[in-house]
Amino acid sequence: xxxxxxxxxxxxLDTICPKCGRSFMKRxxxxxxxxxxxxxxxxxxxxxxxxxxxxxVFGIGIWLIVIFILRNRPNELTKALMLLIPSMIxxxxxxxxxxxxxxxxxxxxxxxxxxLILLIPIISSINLGFKDAVYLNKLNKGSFWIVLSMIVSIxxxxxxxxxxxxxxxxxxxxxxxxxxxxxxxxxxxxxxxSAIVAVILGLVSIVSISAxxxxxxxxxxxxxxxxxxxxxxxxxxxxxxxIENFFKIxxxxxxxxxxxxxxILVIIFEQVFSLIKDTIIRTLLIVxxxxxxxxxxxxxxxxxxxxxxxxLFTAELWISEDFWTTTVYEWIFFLIYCIFLPIMLWLMTMLxxxxxxxxxxxxxxxxxxxxSLFGSKNEVLVSYRSLTISIIMNLFFFSLSFLAAWLVINPxxxxxxxxxxxxxxFLFTFSISxxxxxxxxxxxxxxx
Length: 448
What we know:
With 448 residues, the protein is an all-alpha fold. Helices cover 76% and strands 0% of the residues. The chain has helices at 29-45, 50-69, 74-95, 107-134, 141-169, 173-191, 193-216, 235-319, 328-352, 366-374, 377-415, 426-447. The longest helix has 85 residues, at 235-319. The chain is elongated. The model has no long low-confidence stretch (mean pLDDT 76).
C-alpha cells in the first residue's frame, strides 16, 4: 500500500509512515484543528458541567482513531463501530450515575437502538461460527439442525425475559399493545421450547440413522446347502440329510440376523456419537466467535471508562486554580488511564483486523486458536507495529490539539483579565517544557 508521502508500506493499518513519520491524510492537521476549536468553544461557553460536552468530543475522537486505522477494511470497521459506539452509549446511560443530561430524555430509545445495533455483530458471529464448520471435513449435517434448534431455544428464553423489560421502557400505547400480544404468543411457544428441541433431536437422529442404515447395512449372502445324497440313498439317510440342512438354514438365518443386529447397533452408536461430537464441535466454533465478540464489547466498555476518567480529570484542570490541580495520588491514576487507553485501543483494533471473514480448517490447536483471535504469525508481526505507531501517534496529536487550545486560552486569560479560572497547571507546564527541551535538542543536533 502506498501512502501519501510516497513510501510503500506492507500493512494497510498504517496511518503514520514508519519511515518519514507523515500521516496518510493530505491535511492531517484538519481533524485536530477542529478538535482544538471545539475545546475552545466548550471552554468559553462555561457550561455548568464540562463533562457533558467533553465526553462526546473525546468519544468521537476515539471513534475517529479507529476509523483512521481500519479505513481500508470496511467490513472490520463497520463491525468494530457497531460494538464500540453502542457499548459506550449503553454504559453512559445505564452504568454511569453522572451520565450526560442530554441522554436523560431519550435514554430508553438509546438503549433499545444500541441493543439492536449490538445484535448485528453478535448474530454475524453466530453465522461465522456456522461457516467455520463448513471448512471442517465430514461434519454430520444433522448437528447443524441440533445446534440451530438450541440457539433458537436460547434466543426464545432471552427474549422471554427481556421483552417485559422492553415493554416497561416504552411509553407509546400502540407499540406497547403490539409487544404485549407478541409476549402472549411468546409465552405459548416458550412452554414448548424444550419439546421442540427434543422433537428436532429425535427427527435428526432418526433421519441420520435411517440414511446410514440404507447406505451401510449389508446382508451377508446365504448359500443354500447342497444335498449330499447319492443315488439309491436309504430313507434314514434322506431324513438325516434333511435335518442337517434344516439346522444349517436355521443357523445361517440366526448368524445373518445376529450380524444385522450387530451392524445396526454399531451404526446407531456411530451416528449418535457422531451427532454428539459434531454438535459439540459446531457449538465450540460458535462459542469461539462469540467469545471474541464479547471481548470486543468488554474492551469497548473499558475504553469508555478510561475516556470518562480522563474527561473528569480534564474538567478538573479547567476549573482549578491550583498549580498541581490535585494530589500526586490522582496524578498517578491519570497517568495509568493515559497508558491503558492506547493498550485497549490496540487490542480492539487487533481483534477486529482480518477476523470477520476468515475461516480455519483446524480450530482446536493452540496456533489456530491464537490465529482465530489475532491472525497468523506474519499478520501479527506486521500489524502490531503498524497499530502501535498509528495509535500512539494519533493519540499524541490528539493531546497536542488539547495543548493548542491551552496555548490560546492562557494568553487570552491574561491579556483580557478574564474571571475564568486559570488553566495553567502542572500538566500544561510539563507539556510546554517537554516540547521546548526536545525542540532545542533537535536544533542543536541539526547545527552539528
